[in-house]
Amino acid sequence: MEQKTNDHKRMPRRYRKIRVTKLVGSDPVEFEQPQYEVTVPENTRADHLLRLSARVRASAVPVVYRITESNAASHFWIHPSTGILSLVSPLDFEKKKKYELVVEAQAGEESSEARVIVRVEDQNDHAPVFPTSLHETQITEEDDRHLPKTILTQVTATDADAGEFGRLTYRLSGDGVEGSEEESAFAIDPLTGAIRLLRPLDRDPPHGRAQWNLRVTATDGELEAHTDVRVNVKDVNDNAPFFPSRTTTAAVSEDTPKGTVVARMVATDPDDPREGNNARLVYSLEKNVIDESSGSPIFAIDSELGVITTALCCLDREKTQRYVIQVVATDGGGLKGTGTVVVNVDDVNDVPPRFSRPEWTLDVSESLDPDNVLATLTVVDQDVTNDFAYRVVPNSGRGWQMFTVEGRRRGGPGGDLRSLTSLDYEKPIHRKGFRFKVEVTDMGRNGWDDKYHVDGAWVNLRLVDENDNVPTYISRHARLTLPEDTPIGTHLTTFTARDLDGGGQAIRYQVAPASDPGRLFDVDGSGAVRLVGGLDREVADTHSVLVWAVDQGTPPRTATATLSIDVTDVNDNPPFLSEPREVQVTENSEAQLVARVKLGDPDDWRQGHGPPFTISLDPRAPPHVTDSVRVTLDRRGDDGRGVGVVWTRAALDREERPALLVPLVVGDAGWPSLTATVTLTLHVADVNDNPMAPAAKTVTVHTMQRQGTAVPLGRVYVQDPDDWDAASKTYAWSDPQAGFFLDTSSGHLSMAPSTRDGRYELSFKVSDDSQGQFGVKANVTVEVKTMSSDDVKHATPITLAVDPGYLVKAEKPLKENQEPSMESAGSRVWLVTPGVINADHALLYRKSELSNILGVEVKTVGVGTCQEHFVDKVHVPAGTEKRSTADSECENGCWARTVLSSGFSIVDANTSAVVGPRLEVQTGCGCDNSSPSPDTTCTPYTCLNGGRCVSTSTGTECICPHGTWGSHCKVLSRHFEGGGGRGAGGGSMSKGAWAWVPPIPPCAEVHISLEVLSTTKSAALLYSGPEQGTEQKQGNRDLMLLELSQGRPVLLLDLGGGPVTLTLNSSASLADNTWHRIDLIWKDELMEMIVDLCLGSSWDEPPTLASAAQNRTSAPVLPDAHACRGAARLPRNTRVLNTSGVLQVGGLVYPLPALKTEGKSAPRHPPHFRGCIRNLRINGKLVDLGSGVLSSASSPGCPAADCLANHLHCGLHGRQVFT
Questions:
Q1: CB 484 within 8 A of CB 383
Q2: pLDDT tens digit string along 216-247?
Q3: What is the CB neighbour count within 10 angstroms for residue 221?
Q4: Higher per-residue pLDDT: 834 or 660
Q5: Which pLDDT value is given to residue 219?
Q6: Alpha-carbon distances, residue 427 vs 33, 413, 430, 1032, 1056 (angstroms)
Q7: Where is the EGF-like domain (predicted)?
Q8: What is the 3-class SS of 875-939, one letter each residue?
């Protein structure tokens, strides 16, 4: 039976559970519980255990409690009055585990007894104990028998605790004990403490040790004890001696006596020196050096100490500079180790110095400064510890006092000859030359007095004249005052210079480019300066022209003269419209003053070449202008300069004509007066005075279905003559469609970029509160067509001579009563031709036909040259950045290319609109020789000439057919049939052979090379120039023509400064049915032509394609008469070939434009080429001559080359046949 007393709140929790057994019945005095049980942890100090309570019938009689049995040790005490049983002294579980007390309760004469059982709870109060702090054992190293094996069994501990706290476990730590048994050398039994050896032990360093220290830990789960274990390893002779350094270097003087210590060799043996003779070493020389004369060894060694000494007297460094000997160290067990000693013999100054030659003859430039070394007088001395000294022997010869000899500061032995004063060839005494004697000593014991250690040599020195004088002008400055209409070709002045060097060298004159950026002046070989360009005071009223006089020395020296020119004004500019240039008047308004027009004039007003101005309406103005506008002159306006007063005569109607171009005739006060017609643009501001009408619109969208912003489609259109009332209109869907978005306030429509191809019919309602119109119908048809990004990137731009709106407008022609807009340079249209390579060439070839088909003039085809500023002239959709590059900003060349920009371009013409990806032309300075980035996926443009594109883990790869070359399958040769043949596409435009390839890049340095095989003596090989079939225009005269004339190459080059012809008058013709290579180079105002790389033979055995493609050249040479190489100067400041379109190979489609320098008005047409051309390279890049090339009467490959490769002559049209 279990009960809980009410005293549990006051007692500790460990005493609360009490088991009671009733022993007595109902007596006068009776315990509430006949038996009590309580548990007490051992070692508990004095504490209350429980309270006993007895009932007494006579309540007035007090109860007295006492312990009557089992308390002999007095561990317990009970309070006589309260019955509280207390612990007086600690209990010990290990001595006694349970106490049974008998407690008596007495009230008067009556009493009662109860039994209290006190159980003792065990506590972990004893730590484990090892009998000794150190255990030691010994094993033999490298003993692997009976592994694993027990090496210690007595490493055990005791614990005085009984029960669970007396059970011990063991663990091991220390040397050779790792995380797992596979890696450890020792292990311990966790229950018995026995230590086992798991693998053989190594005693010797570097990885072994003579003593392995372990620690054993015993634990009862809470408390621990430790003891150390020392495992001593007994050595065995298992290590050979070794020298710490395999090679020891020592030094000994060459005059050292016998017995001199050279070095001491000390070997190391890891074995135990206390274990027998395991580490006792004996030294010996295994490979000694033997003296050839005596046959005796040169060195000896002490067998115990390892000290090496010389075994004979006096070494000779000049005979042997170094000895190599081998030392052996042997231990007591016969194991050996070897080391090498390198003995360097130190030098003693015992050999005299000698000059390398007895006499020196020198040619010395007069321009060398005194500090410069004129010559190094080399000295030979077999000794290495020399202290050389040099001197010029006094009074030894002419000019001895002007020179000195000093020891070289670096390098081998020798003396540097220097002059003490400046040398000048122009001084007669110096011009005769010098002769003197020099001496050297290695500073033996007596210095210069020791004649055995002194040697002498003679020096003969002649001065060489140098270009050390700058040309001298007779007059270095001239000033002129010229009117700005001074004729071109006028002689301005002459600067004459002379040069004192070389008896008067030839002098070349040149205008400094930076002082003449406009290229207005030129100077000839006599120094005469002429005007070669037109002066313009309004551009520059002064010029400071620097004229250089450059001699022919190396390096050339330059003198500068200055021509200062003041330019006076000529009345050559009519007045211009200053302000305003555009004005606005509201339609339907009454006649009113529109503007007071002010004029300006760039001429010099101080000379009367300006105001007062006159202004009037042009009498040739069209009737609708004269009927609407009148102009008067206010002579007092603008401070007396004169102002034109413009009035309207009546109300204007914007719907009839949105703008008036008012022609004004203006004149200045010069004599004679200059007049001009200027245009004032009068815009008619719209008033919402017309109602709307339903209308329909068609939008054609070309998209690439890429992610991004919405595609703009233009504005929803309703027919309304008013066009400034957009703000008063509101727009709403009649039937909304997914993927299309409407701005209800502006009417602008857009589309999701991922919209699929197809035709979409959209309907809208348009309202105008001001007109009281609501729900006017407006329908929009959207046609979506997808294009690939690769096709778009290869699109070809063409420029049409028409406004963009005209191209997309449904109603053509424009209204007759519409005021003609200001002249537009045209519109750029990008044509996408999927999969067609060189589409721009085909369009350029059919340019005239294309113009006829379109009914619009095609002005340009392709990107054009980067120098052209057409980007600023043609229409560019809103938001497109304009980019252009000027000649003056790109001295080293420029580039232009098509790029795909973000967003879309839109041309909106009310009833129709066209939307497409935004393309633009980027330009920049420098020569763009970079290769296009490789394709990451296969496209129709990846592989040429039938190559098959395959995708790889790194991108793409072309599987090329036979006869092609390179990663893109280029064809490197082409055959031309000469005259006859039909044009590309079957046309008859050309009657001869030709092929078109990409143009020459506009770079300041160009290198073109090609190889030709032909019997044709006269033919065009390469041409790049102005568009043929048209007259040569000023500013667009650049051209390059390479042709054969009588079998010899002729190069005609014009970089804008005038044509220059270069002809190689070689004795051999290139039309000999063998391969010949021609290289063309131009840079730094010099052009050069080389035949067969000046190898002196033909090119029948060409280098491999890899080497042929390198296309590098050495520095250009000056013009010479060599038969294989020629060069010519180009006009100054000409750097870049500014041509666009194509490079024509093998012939010209049209005759050449007439050249001014040829004195002919009729164009000429060089014959077409008959033969083969291969390995055409432009700035190191091989040009494809394969099937994608636009051509006539030519084909890829060269059949005749196969014959030549096998030493057969089949003729140009022959083909090798295999039988």
A1: no
A2: 999 988 899 999 999 888 888 888 898 988 89
A3: 11
A4: 660
A5: 92
A6: 146, 34, 5, 60, 49
A7: 934-970
A8: ECCCCCCCCCCCHHHCCCEEEEEEEEEEEEEEEECCCEEEEEEEEEEEEEECCCCCCCCCCCCCC
CA distances from 193 to 127, 619, 678 (A): 17, 129, 118
Place of tokens 């020792």: 186
Q: List the structure tokens of 766.
A: 């348009």
H or E segment to which residue 431 belongs = helix 428-431
* Rounded Cα–Cα distance for residues 411 and 152 (Å): 73
Q: How many whole angstroms separate alpha carbon 1082 and alpha carbon 1092?
A: 18
Whether the bond between 555 and the residue before it is cis, its omega within 30 degrees of 0, is yes
Which residue(s) pair with 361 in the sheet?
A: 460
Both tokens of 444, joined, read: 């033996």
Measured distance between the N- and C-terminal CA atoms of the chain, rounded to whole angstroms: 125
Lowest mean pLDDT among 338-342, 502-506, 688-692, 1207-1211: 1207-1211
φ/ψ of 1177, rounded to 5, equals -125, 140
Which region, left, alpha or beta, applies to residue 146 given φ > 0 means left and ψ of -120 to 50 means alpha? left
Pick the closest to residue 695 from 719, 715, 716 (CA basis): 719
Measured between alpha carbons, how far is 322 from 252 in angstroms, rounded to an integer? 10
Q: Are 237 and 331 in contact (CB under 8 A)?
A: yes
Q: Residue 584 and residue 575: Cα distance in Å, rounded? A: 23
Q: In what order do the strands lie in the sheet with 629-634?
A: 576-579, 593-600, 643-648, 629-634
Integer Cα distance of 184 and 168 in angstroms: 23
- Which one is predicted more confidently, 784 or 1038? 784
Interatomic CA distance for residues 148 and 434, integer angstroms: 96
Q: Is 825 left (phi over 0), alpha (psi -120 to 50) or beta?
A: alpha
pLDDT at 475: 92
Residues in the chain, overall count = 1219
Task: Give CA–CA dist 928/834, Å, rounded.
Answer: 26
d(CA 153, CA 620): 133
34: closest CA among 18, 47, 49, 12? 18
Largest CA distance in the chain: 167
CA distances from 379 to 362, 760, 984 (A): 17, 99, 78
**Structure tokens that stand for 729 in this block:** 């209109």
pLDDT tier at 278 (50, 70, 90 boundaries)?
confident
Separation CA 242–CA 468 (nearest Å): 70
Going 769 to 775 to 776 to 782, the CA torsion angle's sign is: positive
Q: CB–CB of 1155/1178 below 8 Å?
A: no
Helix H or strand E encompassing 1108: helix 1105-1108
Helices (runs of H) and strands (runs of E) counted in the chain = 9, 79
Using CB atoms within 10 A of its CB, is residue 1030 exposed (0-12), middle (13-18) or buried (19+)? exposed
Residue 976 reports pLDDT greater than 90:
yes
Peptide bond just before 206 cis, omega within 30 deg:
yes
What secondary structure letter does DSSP report for 1003? B
Residues near 1111 by Cβ (< 8 Å), separated by ≥ 6?
1007, 1009, 1177, 1179, 1180, 1181
Q: How far is CA 1203 from CA 496, 527, 686, 1172, in A?
A: 62, 58, 80, 13
Instruction: Identify the pLDDT of residue 1209.
Output: 54
Q: Are 1024 and 951 in contact (CB under 8 A)?
A: no
CA distance 216 to 231: 13
User: CA 601 to CA 668: how far, in whole Å?
Assistant: 8
Under 8 Å between Cβ of 524 and 489: no
